[in-house]
Specification:
The protein has one helix and no strands. It has one helix at 2-135. The longest helix has 134 residues, at 2-135. It starts with a helix and ends with a helix. Keywords: Coiled coil. This is LEKR1 protein.
Length: 137
């Protein structure tokens, strides 16, 4: 009876040991799979971090270019604004000078008209005097 019980316990122990080994193998296999998955995720994270670093670098480079372009455009706008102001000032001076010249021309034309009229009267007077002096002895 003891021998049979011992044999039965040994068989049960062997079965349990086999189940334990199977469970340990499955656990080791799962641990291996998890370790592979962890390594894969670490590589994926590293790739994403590298991409993020590259994107940041590209964005900073792009922003630097945009800042330089904005600075250039701002300088150009300031220069053009100054040129515009100078041109407006020059235009104002030219308009003033033009107005002065037009006024001068108008006055000279009036003087010429008056002189022409006076010359016409003087001719008439000379002709009248000649005519009168021709009839007088």
């Amino acid at each position: 009876l003891i021998s049979s019980a011992t044999k039965s316990l040994r068989m049960e122990t062997e079965i349990l040991e086999k189940k334990l080994q199977d469970a340990q193998m499955k656990l080791a296999e799962k641990d291996g799979d998890k370790e592979k998955e962890i390594q894969s995720l670490k590589r994926f994270i590293s790739e994403l971090e590298f991409q993020l670093t590259m994107e940041k670098s590209n964005n900073e480079s792009f922003l630097d270019k945009l800042r330089k372009e904005i600075k250039h455009k701002s300088d150009e706008l300031e220069k053009l604004t100054q040129e515009k102001t100078q041109l407006i000032h020059s235009l104002s001076q030219v308009q003033e000078e033009n107005s002065l010249l037009q006024d001068t021309v108008r006055r000279e034309c009036e003087e010429r008209f008056e002189l022409t009229a006076a010359l016409g009267r003087a001719r008439e007077q000379v002709l009248e005097l000649r005519r009168l002096s021709g009839t007088l002895p």
